[in-house]
Structures are given as structure tokens and as C-alpha cells.
Amino acid sequence: MKRLSKTIDWSILSDDELSSNDRKLVEAAKNATSGSWSPYSGFKVGAALLLEDGTVVTGSNQENAAYPSGLCAERTALFAAGHAHPDKAVTALAIAARNDNGFTAQPITPCGACRQVLAETEQRGGKPIRYILYGTQGTMVIEGGTDAILPFCFGADSMK
Ligand code: THU
């Protein structure tokens, strides 16, 4: 028998501890919540992707009365970036979310379906994605790439 393990590292930073680049990406994610169409949940999510050349692509959650047809903020941004900038790697993702009481105290993390798309986006770009997840009580920064949030994921290589 062989026993193996993985560890996940993350940091919680206050606003003034964030680098100016990370703060800008968080601001873009917060601003992107204004584009959310979320009449059913009332939960407005904004995502801001940083591409390898500095381009920022944003997205927000888009809901439908037929609930499963809607899309999360993260995938809205990822597919927009894949369409407009197919050859540029995604190097960071900032997420912010708010309800009627304002931005969430705790950061939100991407759902499972978004994690799968993030993992495949990362494989395609060949660069680890940094995660900058905003909360009013602190921003969570994950440096380990998507493996930190979706270990053992299925990907194109799995079919070889
Ligand atoms: N949502 C996102 O956009 N991103 C997440 O990471 C979690 C959930 C959206 C989907 C739905 O419109 C609303 O938040 C409530 O689940």
C-alpha cells in the first residue's frame, strides 16, 4: 500500500495587503456584479479574468426562469475570453458577490462546474491560474493553480 497526500495553501489578505494589481482585478470583479441578471436568487456575482498580456475580461451571472439554463459569472467570463482571446492564457481570476446586504463577508469560491472549465482553461493556457476571492472580512488568495480547488480532475490528457 502507498499512502499519498496533497496540501492546499491559501492566504487571507486585508484590502491594504493586496498588491495593486490584485486590488484592480478585485475592483473589476466588484464592478462586474452590476451586469448580473439575477432576479431569482438576488445574488449578484462578478468575475474578472486577467489574461497573460494584461487584458481583463469580466463576466457576471445570468439567470433564466428555466433555472438550469442560466450561467455563473465565472463561466460567462471564461467563455467570453475563450471567444475573444483564444490564444491568450488566463493567469488570474477575481470573484466578488453581493446580495441585498452588500458584498459577502466571506469570499465565494467557484462551483464544481466552473472549476472543471477553469481546470481545462488552465490546461489549455499552460499557466497556473491565481485565485483572488473577495470578501469584506478578507480576500482569499490561492496560488496553487486550479489543482488546489479541483484535485484529481478529468481532462484531455485523461483520454490518452
Ligand atoms: N453563482 C455564480 O455566478 N458563481 C458562483 O461561484 C456561485 C453561484 C451564481 C449562480 C446563480 O445565478 C446564483 O449565483 C445563485 O447560485
Describe the protein.
- It is a single chain.
- With 160 residues, this protein is α+β, with helices and mostly antiparallel strands.
- Helices cover 24% and strands 22% of the residues.
- It has three helices and seven strands, in the order E-H-E-E-H-E-E-H-E-E.
- Strands 1, 2, 3, 4, 5, 6 and 7 form a seven-stranded mixed β-sheet that branches.
- Helix 2 runs parallel beside helix 3.
- The two termini are 26 Å apart.
- The model has no long low-confidence stretch (mean pLDDT 97).
- The site of tetrahydrodeoxyuridine (THU) has 14 residues, from helix 2.
SSE pattern, N- to C-terminal: EHEEHEEHEE
Main structural class: alpha+beta
Rg (C-alpha, Å): 16 Å
Q: Which band does the percent of strand residues land in? A: 15-25%
Helix amount: 10-25%
Name the poorly predicted regions: none
Number of strands: 7
* Count of individual helical segments: 3
* Overall geometric form: globular
Small molecules bound in the structure, each named once: tetrahydrodeoxyuridine
Terminal CA distance reads 26 Å
Task: Please give the structural blueprint.
Blueprint: E1 11-13, H1 20-32, E2 44-51, E3 56-60, H2 73-84, E4 90-99, E5 102-103, H3 112-125, E6 130-133, E7 139-142
Parallel strand pairs: 4-6
Antiparallel strand pairs: 1-7, 2-3, 2-4, 4-5, 6-7
Tetrahydrodeoxyuridine binds next to α2.
